[in-house]
Amino acid sequence: MASAWKDRFRYEITRAAFLAGLVCALAACEGDGRPSHYRPQIRDVTVTAVPLLTRELATTYPFLSADFRKGGVLDGKEVYAYVPDHVTAFEGDTLRFTLINPEDDPHTFVLPGLAVAMPPQQTVNATYVARATGIFHFECDLPAHKPMMYGELVVLKAQ
Ligand SMILES: [Cu+2]
């Protein structure tokens, strides 16, 4: 009788250990069934606002005068870029942005969940946690710079 009790006890202990191991394994798995070994990182990203086609350049490129004129293709606009204009991270990473605006015009850096002013000739720091996977548009939301001044943050699934 004592032996049967011991066998039963051993069986229950083994079963409990198996279930505990199964729970741990499932908790470590992603949706595709493979365990995730990625540890979120801090990524330092420097983004600089750069002029491409601005009014000041009309003296260098005379054709721009027609573009900036009322009714021209750049009427009320100027073309700027972010360098780089694409940033990649993994889900859970923290991005430490250093935003540099070397120009005499203001800009902004707007991502879903983050809006930062970039005053002229200043450097601004901002932190963003990439909580969700996907492709996220960032832009300067000043009307004179939309829709040309933009980029994308690509957040990949951690593996
Ligand atoms: Cu701008």
Structure description:
It is elongated and about 100 Å long. It has helices spanning 2-28, 63-68; strands at 42-53, 79-83, 86-90, 94-101, 107-111, 114-118, 122-129, 134-139, 150-156. The protein is α/β, with parallel strands linked by helices. The strands form three sheets. The chain has a four-stranded mixed beta sheet, with no helix packed on it. Strands 3-9-8 form a three-stranded mixed beta sheet, with no helix packed on it. A two-stranded antiparallel sheet has the order 5-6. The protein binds copper (II) ion (CU). Copper (II) ion binds next to loops.
Describe this structure in a few short sentences.
Helix content is 21%, strand content 38%.
Structural key phrases:
single chain, about 160 residues, Immunoglobulin-like, four-stranded mixed β-sheet, three-stranded mixed β-sheet, binds copper (II) ion
